[in-house]
Every structure is written in C-alpha cells, then in structure tokens.
Amino acid sequence: MKHFALLLLVCFFGHMAIAQRYLQPVFSSTQSQSNIAYGQANAWDGTPTPLAMDVYAPLGDTQALRPVMLFFHGGSFLNGVRNDVVMTALCDAFARRGYVTATASYRLGVNIANLPQLNLEFVRAAVRATHDAKAAVRFLRRSVAEQGNPYGIDTNRIYIGGYSAGSIAAIHVAYLT
Q1: Using an 8 Å Cβ cutoff, are 104 and 37 in contact?
Q2: Maximum Cα–Cα distance across the chain
Q3: By the 8 A CB rule, do 52 and 38 touch?
Q4: Which stretch of DSSP H or E encloses residue 48?
Q5: By C-alpha distance, which of 38, 69, 41, 36 is closest to 129?
Q6: pTM of the predicted structure, to 2 decimals
Q7: Contacts of 173 (CB under 8 A, 6+ apart)
Q8: 17-44: b or e for each residue (b if 16 or more CB lie within 10 Å)?
Q9: pLDDT in tens, 85-136
Q10: 90: how many CB neighbours lie within 10 A of its CB?
C-alpha cells in the first residue's frame, strides 16, 4: 500500500510538472519567422490576394512535436493585420509556454455597393475568411508531410482562435464544410 501511494504521488506530481509547460511561461524568449506564404485566393472583387502567416516557437526548445495555436486577427472582415499588437503578444506569450504559434492573414473586404444585400456580403466575407483559415491548417499539415516538419509541430494538436472577425472564422472552421 505504501508503494501504491508513492506511485500515485509520483504520477500526480509528474503530470503536474509536465502540464506546467503549457500553463506557464517556461522559455525566456521566442523565435519567429515572418511572412510565410501559405496560399493565394481571390478577394471579393476578384483581386488575387497573397495569404501569409508568422510562426513563433520557443527558443531553445528540444521537444520535436509541439501543439500549434493558430490565431486570426479582428477587424470586421474589413481591415486588420496578422501582426498587430494583440496577435504578436498572443503568439509570443503562448510560444513562451511551449506551443508553436502562428498568426495568419485572410482576405478582407466586402462589396459595399451591394447595399440591399450587405448582410449577405458579410456572410460571404466570413466564408472567405473560413476558407483561408482552413488553408492555413492544410499548409501546416502539408509542411510536416512534405517539408520534414520545419516548425516542429504535432498535427494532431492544432488549435484555432482569434478575436472579433478572426474568432468567427476560427469557429466556422469546425462547422462549415
């Protein structure tokens, strides 16, 4: 019984020590790669739009497979940039906890001239952003399969989030096919 209690304590506290990696900052700095092209798609007006992401990772991390947190900026589907202050801070904070993080751009804009169906225009903008978010996930998975996993990610643990319009796109990744 004494050994069982000791084993239980080791398992419990051992799990706590591992879990701290993702709960608290354990790395003092991060490294980032900016402007990584992950695709191109046409905007609402047919203009080809390059899609890019910035990837952050904990500096000096030796773990080979890390969860990924992919973030999308806000801006009402009309404006905003992937490397704004909020996105940069989120990516850096979670990379210091041991995650690989990325902030990705998506197509912006709506046809304001279609005033009678402006609601539909914003629905279309959300769908475009969702398509772009899915493309970013496919890019990360493809980087593992075809490029030897340059970002050190675990494709079974990809999490998506954002704020404002970015959160709408992230939520729809799970629900729109």
Answers
A1: no
A2: 76
A3: yes
A4: strand 48-58
A5: 41
A6: 0.86
A7: 130, 133, 134, 137, 160
A8: eeeebeeebebeebebeeebebbeeeeb
A9: 999 999 999 999 999 999 999 999 999 999 899 999 999 999 999 999 999 9
A10: 20
